[in-house]
Amino acid sequence: MSSAIALRTIAVKEIRRFVRIWPQTLLPPAITTALYFLIFGKLIGSRIGMIHGISYMDYIVPGIILMSVISHSYANVVSSFYSTKFQHNIEELLVSPVPNWVILAGYIIGGIARGLLVGTVVTLISLLFSKIAVQHLTLSLLVAVLTATLFSLAGFINAVFADSFDDISIIPNFVLTPLSYLGGVFYTVEMLPDVWQSISLANPILYMVNTFRYGLCGVTDVDIHVGLAMTCGFIIVLTLFSLLLLHKGVGIKN
Amino acid sequence: MNALSLRNLRKTYNNGFEALKGIDLDVKAGDFFALLGANGAGKSTTIGIISSLVNETSGTVSVFGHDLRKENRQAKSCIGLVPQEVNFNQFETAQNIVMNQAGYYGMPYKEAKASTERCLKLLQLWDKRDSVSRRLSGGMKRRLMIARALVHSPKLLILDEPTAGVDIEIRRSMWEMMREVNQQGTTIILTTHYLEEAENLCRNIAIIHQGLIVENSDMATLLSRIHVHHFLLDLAKPLETAPQLAGCVCELVEDKVLSVSVPKDKSLNQLFAQLSEQAIEVVSLKNKSNRLEQLFMDIVQ
């Protein structure tokens, strides 16, 4: 009971935080993705034609939605948990009898909530440009939730190890963004030369984007079972690693 | 019953610094206990370990009979901590900060809300409940940390230099509040640099020096060890040299200010009689330093 109250407290605090600063958290993705749809989808996409039997605009919508989910679930947890460390109010949690799994779950719920809310905003924007008939709604929602969970966990680990605000922007800028752009958001891997196709298959985001695209549009470059299994596998590994870090007090205890 | 028991507590930091070298300490339930020590003596490390902010290298901590490692949640539920530095979210309101802390301790919403109101009123912060914490004054921030620490009605309240940087009026009102909390049954452990504060509030005292407990007794016993009292006398007329007073050590601080060290067995009447014999008129008298301060310096030097 007391753990449930603590979990609700952390989760509500985290959700309230990003809602309170909505001009920083919810508005920018709406504008950025509207530009993506306008420039890549509308202006350039009309010259590219069909991919896997659907229009280029419809092809890029799932990728852009999932890219927003990835970047915002990650950003929410990494910035919030690092700020908590930076202002030392992590001590409020360490002093109190909150189990480590509750601390982790509270922050991850916050990350998932922001990821999904931003994903919803981007989906609504996409409806101005595209009329996708959703093929597998449950699968689409499942992939969105799992992806948000995975990248919230990754953001948490980044925040645990971060010693400065620079450290929380390195991974998003130099790892996440390139992997997202090279993860088949704007193209099918079939467009790439053989060597680059093989290299692309080592990018986990490619599997997530394509599994999500299968859910929405019914087309994919990869086996969706591999995509789901890979995402779940990463979630399990990162959850255990996060709990180990909290147990040892890495980055949060002297 | 002991509110707190430390056994052979040791801490060596990663850089090799040995902050605690095997501390044993008992604090009885209901006590108002002072933990004193110079900067770097090991006070904050000790408090950090008790409040789970620092991992001990070895040794045990027991809070109201609950081992901090084996019965972590029960032990933590007994503790309220007021840290040295402001450590709440600077963007949250005072009320939310205290409410959130109640939530971390598993208090249901209604109970948490009532307790938050009680604590904010006790610390005279109710009018500021909707203020963002970074806009509060330094004294208010300190009081907010106390309100936060009290919200779950802890059995052991640890105050790490709670009155540092607050003005005299607020400090006195905080003393009253601490006395009241202690009288209601909460055990208090206080660290402070104001030794007058420890002398006024605490019944028992431990002094930590270079990672070891070098003194652990009740305040009265400790103060009874003072053999010499030091006074500053303001004189009516200037002197050129310090007078010779039997049994006392005199030093002229300024031409009209005389420092006198008087043995404990010598009365002030005897001192003034000797001064009168030498036609030295005293306008006023004050303690040269706090009594506990003298002892503290003697012990740690």
List its salient traits.
heterodimer; A: 254 residues; mainly alpha; two-stranded antiparallel sheet; 2% strand; B: 301 residues; alpha/beta; Rossmann fold; Alpha-Beta Plaits; 33% helix; 30% strand; globular
Largest interface: A-B, 26 and 32 residues
Q: What is the CATH third-level topology name of the largest domain in chain B?
A: Rossmann fold
How much of the sequence lies in strands of chain B comes to 25-35%
H/E topology pattern of chain A = HHHEEHHHHHHHH
Strand residue content of chain A? under 5%
Rg of chain A computed from alpha carbons, rounded to a whole number of angstroms: 19 Å
Number of β-strand runs of chain B = 14
Shape descriptor of chain A reads globular
Distance between the termini of chain A: 30 Å
Assigned CATH superfamily of the largest domain in chain B: P-loop containing nucleotide triphosphate hydrolases
Assembly type of the shown chains?
A: heterodimer
Helix-strand sequence of chain B? EEEHEEHEHHHEHEHEEHEEEHEH
Task: Compute the number of structural domains of chain B.
Answer: 2
Largest sheet of chain B, described in full? 6 strands, mixed
